[in-house]
């Protein structure tokens, strides 16, 4: 997993899973705490995430809310969009451009 960027926009790549969760959490929390306004999380380079990785994203979302910020997901890969829809988190998280639920392939 790699994360690059600053307190306004971060690009997450590789795997966001139980192995990388602690490092990702630290970077995301620092970015939330050190900035103002929206924090854009670009997931276009993300290969996969597991439940732990999704928990990291949700934790950053809650922390951003407590700081008066909004966590905005950008470039969410289709397989991860399906997971967000299945868990109904697409209704809670801010997703740039939204998710076209009707255009996602059925699983």
Automatic annotation (TrEMBL):
PANTHER family: ANTI-SIGMA FACTOR ANTAGONIST TM_1081-RELATED, ANTI-SIGMA FACTOR ANTAGONIST TM_1081-RELATED-RELATED. The lineage of its organism: Bacteria, Bacillati, Actinomycetota, Actinomycetes, Kitasatosporales. It holds the Pfam family STAS_2. PROSITE patterns: STAS (PS50801). Residues 1-107 form the STAS domain. Coiled coil: none annotated. GO terms for molecular function: anti-sigma factor antagonist activity. This is Anti-sigma factor antagonist. Belongs to the anti-sigma-factor antagonist family.
